[in-house]
Amino acid sequence: MNKYLKTAYQFGTLGGILSIGSFIFLSFWNTDPTNLNLIFGYIITPIALFLGIKFFKDYTNSGYLSFAEGMTIGFVTYLLIGVISFLGIALILKVSPDLFASIQETKWSVLEENREVIISQVGIDSFELTQSNLKAMSFWDIALNDGIWKIIPGMFFSIIISIILRKNPN
């Protein structure tokens, strides 16, 4: 089992560190780096998954890859990316309450700017619920959201990449 996980650990850790790095980098340019960091996650997650599965196939498994092996490597990789990203962003927001306040304020202003559109689409009750949830938001919520949005697309990318790279011995 360890032969499956060595590559996944490497690329999952690398993807998580890159995700944290992008959050830090984007926080210098934007008052709310969360949305741009999610877009970066949609780029780095499939790349890390592809490289992890491809490296396993080529260098550990003699050029062969079953769907189950690809999914195992992919699962560990995207889970690590999500967990490392979650923990890193939570730590950053915990030690930088000004950044958290800036993110919360930006989200609040976007909500208020689009008040009429949101109310017309989902109703006043949903808008007011969103307002109350935004007031009660903590840094854990932001970090958890980022981690989840690394894991969910990772599941789909793992399936696709495992199918594409699959090669069974004859």
Automatic annotation (TrEMBL):
The record, for Pfam families, names: DUF4199
* Residues annotated as transmembrane: 7-29, 35-53, 73-93, 147-165
Q: Which domain of life is it from?
A: Bacteria
Q: Which UniProt keywords apply?
A: Membrane, Transmembrane, Transmembrane helix
Q: Does the keyword Transmembrane helix apply?
A: yes
**Record-given protein name:** Uncharacterized protein DUF4199
